[in-house]
Request: fold
Amino acid sequence: MQIESAETDLGYFSRPREGTHPGVVLIPDVRGIYAHFLELAQRLTREGFAVLLVNVYRRIGTPEITDVESAMRWIRQLSDPVVLAEIQAARDYLATHDAVAGKPVGVMGFCMGGQYAILAACELLGFSACVPFYGMLRYADDLDPRKKPRSPLDAIGDLSCPLLGLYGEEDGLIPLADVREFEARLATSAQPGEIRLYADAGHAFLNDSRPETFRASAAADAWPRAVAFLHDQLDR
Reply:
């Protein structure tokens, strides 16, 4: 398959050169757009999707993340309404682009991006599938409610499309109890939802640019499962 890709005002856009295809808004982790996510955008495109890897920091600037603590500090103060506005703009760009031409659009995100993929599927318009990879789920009680109106766990009752969540049982950032609660709340949603848990896998298990977190067996199951789910929901 021949692929065309280019930077846009909203991020990085990648499409099969010919035909119309379902769209996917791809949301990176807290570090923003870097090589791992550019490669994932290309992989999704080779699977037959038009992909917009969204730059959620385009108006506010990319943070300097040096360790887990600085990442968590940044996430806690980041404005959800600001980020969700960028994701809505990305979805609308895809939906009207001639590579998509009105076909369904899904959302996929990783870590912080997975958190926002869930919120997008609950609060924004026009998404037909949601795939969070190890998306953050619960907010601390002392966060600014103007920036953090509600956590993904609290939003899930408003889920507007099918969801497939992919998590590691040994995730040091997302307690297993939170994932189990997420699964229980999904079971009461009007939309179909599934959580896939991987033993011996932790946070960022798909990220093969980080040998300390990458888990080949979990990744080998999770990625094809996610792609198949997107095709099932978006090939309309």
Remarks:
- The chain has one domain: 3-234.
- Residues 39 and 45 are 10 Å apart (CA to CA).
- The chain has a mean pLDDT of 97.
